[in-house]
Design goal:
81 residues; alpha+beta; YefM-like fold; 5 strands; elongated
């Protein structure tokens, strides 16, 4: 996901629009001062991850985490789940 960068001057003049975009899209905005990254504007309540084109299917945050040891042993042995 692309991160938008805005200057502090632009952020000040567009704050309400930036807040609405962050809330609606879940994207992070980096606020810069004289070309230096100084702050992040991130959603307070991130939207749950969605799977492809199935908007009603939510993906848990640990979806791509490691398998539990017992499950990993069964997987490597080729056992059905």
């Amino acid at each position: 996901m692309a991160v938008e960068k805005v200057s502090s001057t632009e952020a000040r003049s567009r704050l309400n629009a930036l807040l609405a975009d962050v809330e609606r899209t879940g994207k992070t905005v980096i606020i810069t001062n004289h070309g230096r990254d100084v702050a992040l504007l991130v959603p307070a309540n991130p939207a749950p991850r969605q799977f492809g084109q199935l908007p009603s299917l939510s993906v848990p945050t640990d979806f791509d985490g490691p398998l539990p040891d017992a499950e990993l042993v069964r997987w490597e042995a080729g056992e059905p789940s």
